[in-house]
């Protein structure tokens, strides 16, 4: 099952994103991987791409329909992670895709 979870709730799409493996990500999406599948922390593959500063991977996930404003268990969006990493190109791309810079996480912090 392409959308099967491991013990941490991560799917194959999460692991391929962690590796920055865009070829495998493309195949997984082509064969029905849920682009916004969540792990145990309610993070999507886009959260992972943003956390790692993977601009091309993030763009691929966004083109596949990933929710740019998905909120994890702690209230963080992908924009929170990209800003924390100081990945300015990725921050800019997420904003262009409609990321909301005013969303506050559980600590009351906005991404910017």
Automatic annotation (TrEMBL):
The keyword Nuclease does not apply. ANK repeats lie at residues 8-40, 41-73, 74-106. It comes from the Eukaryota. InterPro entries: Ankyrin_rpt, Ankyrin_rpt-contain_sf. PROSITE patterns: ANK_REP_REGION, ANK_REPEAT. Keywords: ANK repeat, Repeat. PANTHER family: ANKYRIN REPEAT DOMAIN-CONTAINING PROTEIN 39-RELATED (PTHR24171). This is Ankyrin repeat protein. It comes from Rhypophila decipiens.
């Amino acid at each position: 099952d392409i959308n099967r979870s491991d013990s941490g709730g991560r799917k194959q799409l999460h692991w391929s994103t962690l590796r920055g493996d865009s070829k495998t990500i493309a195949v997984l999406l082509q064969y029905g991987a849920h682009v916004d599948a969540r792990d145990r922390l309610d993070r999507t593959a886009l959260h992972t791409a943003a956390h790692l500063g993977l601009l091309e991977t993030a763009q691929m996930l966004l083109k596949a329909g990933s929710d740019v404003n998905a909120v994890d268990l702690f209230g963080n969006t992908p924009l929170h992670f990209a800003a924390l990493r100081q990945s300015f190109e990725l921050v800019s791309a997420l904003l262009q895709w409609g990321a909301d810079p005013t969303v506050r996480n559980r600590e009351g912090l906005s991404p910017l």
